[in-house]
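Hi W., the iron/sulfur cluster complex you wanted:
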Amino acid sequence: MVELTIDGVKVRAVEGTSVLEAAREMGIIIPTLCYYPGLSSYGECRVCLVEVLKGKGRSSLEASCAMPVENGMVVLTNSEKVKKARKVVVELLLASCPTSKTLQDLASNMGINKIRFAVKDRGCILCGRCVRYCREQMRSGGIGFVGRGTSRRVATAFGVTPVECRNCGGCEWICPVCERACTADSLVNGLCGACQNAAPVETCRICVGCSESVGAHGHTVY
Ligand code: SF4
Ligand code: SF4
Ligand code: FES
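Structure:
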């Protein structure tokens, strides 16, 4: 077992546990996007940032989902530094996917009501949940990342339904962007945070050509 301090409370955790899991065991809520229980950690979205104190006034911001617990570690999950950094991360993600209801809800909870960055709707935050789900749970590998930098995206090989695909639909189901979309008229840089829309999005916004339900307008979800 490993002993560490999270938000001033001494806790013991099994070696190999992530800081996120140890904090959640204590009932502490840390927002996550690329993390999903049962999938490998990717540490990409940075929404789960926590502050790790290093002594002598020094500290670092770390992705808690990808950081294993260590003996003597001192962690703050909701310090001013953490809250400020998380806000910037969510704003940047929203700039890539302004209509994602998951992101908008996250933003609302953080008191974000405006996106300060240039908005370019890419329909994907590159969280990799779909890719890991396909590979690790379905043992398929029907989809993967292609391209680099700003052209990086999730796709099938040659843009066609791969033979490896089992048509499970899991890649759509697990996507935090496909799940639900905001349907407000104007969302260029404003977020009202008052939406009660819980309806599923009619069509998947990132067609990876993997499902039997693909139609003229993309996937039909649910
Ligand atoms: S529908 Fe196909 S590509 Fe999507 S997770 Fe299932 S097997 Fe993978
Ligand atoms: S398609 Fe969805 S699940 Fe896949 S990487 Fe993009 S945002 Fe994540
Ligand atoms: S949830 Fe930890 S980096 Fe994405």
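Residues 133-134, 138, 140, 142-143, 165-171, 210-211 surround iron/sulfur cluster (ligand 1) (CB under 6 Å).

W.
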